[in-house]
Amino acid sequence: MSMPGTVVAGIDGSDLANEAARWAAAEAARHRCVLRLVRAYQLPPSSAAEASSLLWSHAHHQLWTAAHHARAVVPELAVEQAVVEGDPVEVLLHEAAGARVLVVGTRGIGGFASLLVGSVGTALARRAPCPLVVVRGPVLSDAALMHTDRTRPLVVGVDGSPASETALAFAFAEADAWAAPLVAVHAWIEHLETPDAPGGLAELEEQERELLGERLAGWTGKYPGVRVSRELVHGPPARALVARSAHARLVVVGSSGRGPVGRVLLGSTGRALLHHALAPVAVVRPDGPGTAQDRT
């Protein structure tokens, strides 16, 4: 278990894991946190002591490399390193308890191989006790990571559910820390049909616009320095968020639900973003303790 507020990054020696370490370093610096790099590994069932020693040494070298990438972004950053034997999912879930955020790359080697087939990354998205950030490709340069760039906003999906409320809490806190604008996207109708209601589509759209404003009102009051743009879109929310990810610093989405079933599900929007987004993706669970401090 990590100290409260720590930024934890899962490392596996891949290029994308090193990109995750770079993103996590900037995140830790923005929030004045410690960065903890964790390399989980599993021994083959009948491995010899020599093999165990070799794997342990190799894991430490991978951590050293990741720490080098992290310190290239923030030279003065406090970086902890841990090699842990065990199942990568269980190790990272334990490390993430109490953390501010858990960061991983999408595709790697060994423990973090391919979110596209849904192993470690999707398991973490369903179960992580804090917000999970998945780095899907090369992120910004070292300088760009640490300097304000108002051309790259954060994007958050809003649907009025408890999941999107905690996603808003995380997104506003991130936008405030990064001094970045925030785009709130509400996909309110997936099929363009004329609704059977007084005033038709225009009246319903205005109602949805007011609803979006109500959802944002408390957060804009809490974070008056965050410049917020509101977007109502027609069509599936996943398509809208993936399209906006091309120019985003981070895309934030809530995971599915509540109760014993909802807690282990990742919604279709979250799955689509993990597969197709062009920016890092944050998945925030509605009951994750990592977001509790931001609730109003």
Index terms:
single chain; 296 residues; alpha/beta; 10-stranded mixed sheet; 42% helix; elongated; disordered C terminus
What's the short story on this structure?
The protein has 296 residues and is an alpha/beta fold.
Account of the protein in words:
The structure is a single chain. The protein has 296 residues and is α/β, with parallel strands linked by helices. The chain is 42% helix and 19% strand. The protein is built from 10 helices and 10 strands. The chain has helices spanning 15-30, 49-73, 88-96, 120-127, 142-146, 162-178, 200-222, 237-244, 259-262, 268-276, and strands spanning 7-10, 35-41, 79-85, 101-105, 132-135, 154-157, 182-189, 228-234, 250-254, 281-284. It has a 10-stranded mixed β-sheet with strand order 3-2-1-4-5-10-9-6-7-8, sandwiched between helices. α1 (15-30) links the parallel β1 (7-10) and β2 (35-41). α1 packs across α2 (49-73), α6 (162-178) crosses α7 and α8 packs parallel to α10. It is elongated, with a radius of gyration of 20 Å. Residues 108-118, 257-265 and 289-296 have low confidence and may be disordered.
Number of strands: 10
Biggest β-sheet: count, sense, barrel? Answer: 10 strands, mixed
Q: How much strand?
A: 15-25%
- Which strand order does the major sheet show? 3-2-1-4-5-10-9-6-7-8
Unreliable spans are 108-118, 257-265, 289-296
Average pLDDT metric: 83
Rg on CA atoms, Å? 20 Å
Order of helices and strands: EHEHEHEHEHEHEHEHEHHE
Number of helices: 10
Helix content: 40-55%
The separation of the N and C termini measures 26 Å
CA-based shape: elongated
